[in-house]
Amino acid sequence: MSEKIATREAYGLALAEFGAQYENIIVLDADLSKSTKTEEFKKKFPDRFINMGISESDMMATAAGIATTGKIVFASTFAIFAAGRAFEQVRNSIAYPKLNVKIGATHAGITVGEDGGSHQAVEDIALMRAVPNMVVISPADAVESRAAVKAAIEYDGPVYLRFGRLAVPVIYDKDNYVFELGKGVETAPGNDIAIIATGMMVGNALEARQKLSREGINARVIDIHTIKPIDKDIIVKAAEETGAILTVEEHVVNGGLGGAVAEVLSEYRPTIMKRMGLYDQFGQSGKPDDLLKLYKLTPDDIADEAKALLQHKP
Amino acid sequence: MQQNKIEFLEEKAKQVRADIICSLASANSGHTGGSLSATDILVALYFEVMNVRPDQPKWPDRDRLVLSKGHAAPALYAVLAHKGYFSRDHLWTLRQVGSILQGHPDMKRTPGVDMSTGSLGQGISAANGMALAGKIDKKDYRVYALLGDGELEEGEVWEAAMTAAHYKLDNLTAFVDHNHLQIDGFVTDVKSPEPVDEKFKAFGWNVLYINGHDMNEILEAVEQAKATKGKPTVIIAETVKGKGVSFMECQAGWHGIAPNAQQKEQALKELGAEINV
Fold first, then answer.
1. pLDDT per residue over B187-212, tens digit each?
2. Do A65 and B159 touch (CB under 8 A)?
3. Which of A258, A301, B161, B168 could disulfide-link to B203, CB 3.0 to 4.6 Å?
4. Does residue A211 share a domain with residue A157?
């Protein structure tokens, strides 16, 4: 786990890589191509890159118009603008007609860091998950991000892809990793408790698992990269086999991964659970690591919550 | 222009207006005023200007129309039906459960609808997207967008206006259905977008100004737009909301309501159209 790459970096590189094979990919950005890393695509395929300027709403509806001609369109900006500012364009011009637009939303979550709460999307998963026809993907590392981009290309319809700013450990082996849209990944085995995480929290969950194992607790780690449609089976199975579910996300606990898992469990297998994430809070400025400590999303915090939850396990 | 061509279009517009009235009366809801003001433009486009194949609505090389003022859907539907995209019988199912004709245009349900619209300001962006794709693919299809004048209060319209000029989308022609009324009253009273022509000029567009109920002027303006290279054209069409029906003309109150049975009969009589529903 020594190598660290931001998922946004992997996103840009994947676009540039797959752009050669898929000649009908068009990439749009809203003056953030250096940050979203779509500049990697722009360098290789300048004729298929369109800078929309600082006009996110216009960008999303333009992407929809391009998609009506049979193109695969990636529209990129920060998550706060993609899911927030342009929500209604995404809803009405992209999702309602189920057009083939992939929203590459980078800089999600509090690990945006110093730019502060105004730029840290902590509600984008909830917003996008509520929209009919929208697939929501939140990859854990660079390997999964590349695979997610490929899966999004091969899927016909709108996809929201959530990427982070911060360099995070590579946890998967790129030669063996298999991405299946809508299927969670059992990243590490264990039967005492299941930690279900998404995005960079999968890496933190794996570290928490190591800490727990030193205390004799075997935690299963499940990576839910596709938050919608969610993998009901892997969640119910984890509930049946471990009896305690801890969810972790860099997002508010309402309507995101924790909400989605709670919906599955309460309908199919009521199980004690705890949601880790932001509780009715915005983020703020600070170094990403300091923010993770402040909002209790470090591996230590996850291990502590796991132990606390186990106290309540029947 | 050949006189018989103009007479044909005018007769078509009369039939389309009658079908708009009947479909709205049948739905018992919908947007009457802005459908009637946009009718002549849509008839001219579909029956004279646009290169389309009603039996092949998704033909990749077709000209496209985005009804950015999506609430004028009844006018678009009547035109599409007359053009042969689907049976006129569908017009009497407007806004009903299961109908192919939704309250606002839905490209997934209605053959011939090139873009789902209704939320104002978004259609012009989508039209830009189609025009950009045409440039990238070196295709010579043209894209038409129809906006309302109230719609110009949406900020996205001006984001899109910048996009079209910046990318020199001379394959795009936008119409503004300048009927001067929106739901809450006169456009200039609610929040004036005037001067509309100066604004588009400042945004880098070729601007034409016409009577939107004169077929000759509509067709001539389209030809001028086609001949204009390096910039998009906007045709500001001076129109009358509720055009063709005396008691609907210039009435903001007729923005979002449908005629009742008696009003329908009166309207049809004024339009002088033969109607068999």
1. 999 999 999 999 999 999 999 999 99
2. no
3. B161
4. no
Residue A34, judged by CB atoms within 10 A of its CB (0-12, 13-18, 19+), counts as: exposed
Question: Torsions phi, psi of A98, nearest 5?
Answer: 50, 50
**Structure-token match 């319209």, residue found:** B157
Residue A111 token pair? 């690990």
ipTM: 0.96
Q: Chain A: nearest CA to B160, how far in angstroms? A: 6
Residue B68 structure tokens = 């950015």
CATH number, domain B3-271: 3.40.50.970
Q: What is the pTM of this model?
A: 0.97
Contact residues of B toward A, CB < 8 A:
60, 64, 66, 106-108, 114-116, 118-119, 121-123, 125-134, 136-137, 155-156, 159-160, 162-163, 166-167
Domain boundary among A144, A169, A194: A169
Nearest-neighbour CA in chain A from B29: distance (Å)? 22
CA distance A7 to A144: 9
Is A134 contained in some domain? Answer: yes
CB neighbour burial string for B206-238, b if at least 16 within 10 angstroms, e if fewer? bbbbbebbbbebbbebbeebeeeeebbbbbbbb
d(CA A233, CA A204): 23
